[in-house]
Write a structure and sequence with these properties.
The chain is of the alpha/beta class. It has eight helices and seven strands, in the order βαβαββαβαβαβααα. This is Inner membrane protein YgaP.
Amino acid sequence: MSVNKISPQELNKLCESGNCDLIDVRTPAEYEEVHATKAVNEPLDRLAPKEIMDARNGSADQPLYVICKSGNRAGKACEKFIAAGYENVVNVEGGTDAWASAGLPVVRGKKTISLERQVRITAGFLVLVGALLGMFVHPYFAGLSAFVGAGLMFAGITDTCGMAMLLAKMPWNQGPSCSK
């Protein structure tokens, strides 16, 4: 399944010349930190392609542009739309990082810890706790470190991170901007 792509500069020109629908599929906390001015938050973990397309008020024949931090989650969101039968979706190359780097208009809010950093912090903490408990309490606790290591390996191979999905649902990663 092939996903169409567009550069942030090209999309900005389209948005300036007319109406364009842009959704940001990052967590509400990430969205609150910085987002393209025209973007509406629709978190990937709650993405409902049919609801979004039905709410477009007759512009379903127009492309729907999808953005995230770097392009990876937006690609997954585009695949969800295509699987649901909506093929006119376009991934913004490089995501919000590329958008902001190009000097295009963004809204900046409260600084947050990125989901990727939260995963690294949590994984590191769990590995350390497992190792310490394994050394000082009971050797079976080393299994915690092994479990986290296996999870990280699985995430790297499949490009799906269970810990990130769990952390994305935590209260500190939610915000008032979520359109749902």
